[in-house]
């Protein structure tokens, strides 16, 4: 999924998610007013951002893990730094990201991503 994101391969990116998948960004997953964003909305947003705002995307030294808890639930995690360049200003940007992913039937059911929004301004 992350490799497809970096390459702007939206069909492959989307195929990694279940149809009902959703994303949560920069919120605690336990917040009572949690904003769940449907995966198709996320794909549209990423695609538009890449066309308008960000020129390329590199994943620097990612750390991936998949764990299974005692109840049999599977989770994927990633820690990485994404590097890109703002199309309008030419400014190079690095953004540190942590992502947690609920995995069901070999697809992502949900993602919870924490990143530095200020790095994207």
Major sheet description: 6 strands, mixed
What structural category arises from helix and sheet content? alpha+beta
What is the string of helix and strand elements? HHEEHEEEE
Q: What's the Cα radius of gyration? A: 15 Å
Number of helices: 3
Number of strands: 6
Mean of residue pLDDT values: 91
Low-confidence stretches: none
Percentage of residues in DSSP E strands: over 45%
Helical residues, percent? 10-25%
Q: Give the termini distance in whole angstroms.
A: 24 Å
Shape: globular
Strand order of the largest sheet: 2-1-6-5-4-3
Describe the structure.
This protein has 121 residues and is α+β, with helices and mostly antiparallel strands. Helices cover 21% and strands 50% of the residues. It is built from 3 helices and 6 strands; from the N terminus they run H-H-E-E-H-E-E-E-E. A 6-stranded mixed beta sheet has the order 2-1-6-5-4-3. Strand 5 and strand 6 form a beta hairpin. The protein is globular, with a radius of gyration of 15 Å. The relative contact order is 0.21. The mean pLDDT is 91.
């Amino acid at each position: 999924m992350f490799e497809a994101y970096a390459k702007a391969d939206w069909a492959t990116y989307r195929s990694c998610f279940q149809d009902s998948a959703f994303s949560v960004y920069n919120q605690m997953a336990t917040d009572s007013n949690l904003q769940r964003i449907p995966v198709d909305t996320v794909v549209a947003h990423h695609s538009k951002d890449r066309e308008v705002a960000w020129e390329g995307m590199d994943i620097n030294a990612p750390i991936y893990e998949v764990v299974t808890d005692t109840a049999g639930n599977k989770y994927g995690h990633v820690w990485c730094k994404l590097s890109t360049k703002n199309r309008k200003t030419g400014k190079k940007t690095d953004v540190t990201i942590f992502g947690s992913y609920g995995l069901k039937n070999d697809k992502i059911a949900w993602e919870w991503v924490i990143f530095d929004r200020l790095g994207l301004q």
